[in-house]
Amino acid sequence: MASGSTNVSRRAMLGAVTVTAAGAALSPDTASAAAPPAEPQVRGSFKITDRRGKQRFRLDSRKPPIIIDGQEIPAAQRGGPENASWLIFNDDNGNEIGGILAGTTGGSITFDYPGALDAIKMSSIWRDPVGGAGININAHPTGAPPTGPKERVLLGWRSDLGSLLHLTDSQGRPRITLEVDENDTPSIKVLDTDGKVVAQLPPR
After folding, report:
1. Which terminus of the chain has fewer CB atoms gathered within 10 Å of its CB, N or C?
2. Which long-range contacts (CB under 8 A, 24 or more apart) does 121-130 make?
């Protein structure tokens, strides 16, 4: 994950939170006593916590752990590349609610439902010769199986597939698809629960 930032509000930020960098805690007093270098650098990870010690943001150069219901889940259980730029967002209880990922083959911006389950995700991929970008919108996990919420909307483009919009049912099955394929041929299809086309434009 990666994100641009400025140092304009650094002093105000230090007055409201505790900054933990590579395991060292800096309070407002110690921050003002020692002037920061012109270009401060942090190796490994950079974590911002609130006054209660709850993690609110984490910037990491390797896959970070997940915090759900106050419990830290090992990074190995998180999807995504091991070595990338990660920025994790946490709510006021310290639980993960989204983040930004930037790696050598793609990136994403995600906002979560409770339990660190994807609610909406905007992503890009590039693996020569294929590239693409898309937006995934998932149903709220209420009543969903443990595997997570079902995808309800997919809007995207891939160099080998063209552009597409898929609208799905409560089980995540595509029911209406609008596509312009890689040969610039447009189509609209209506599918049944088994994935069979029941209506199509242009007609077959």
Report:
1. C
2. 125/158, 129/159, 130/158, 130/159, 130/160
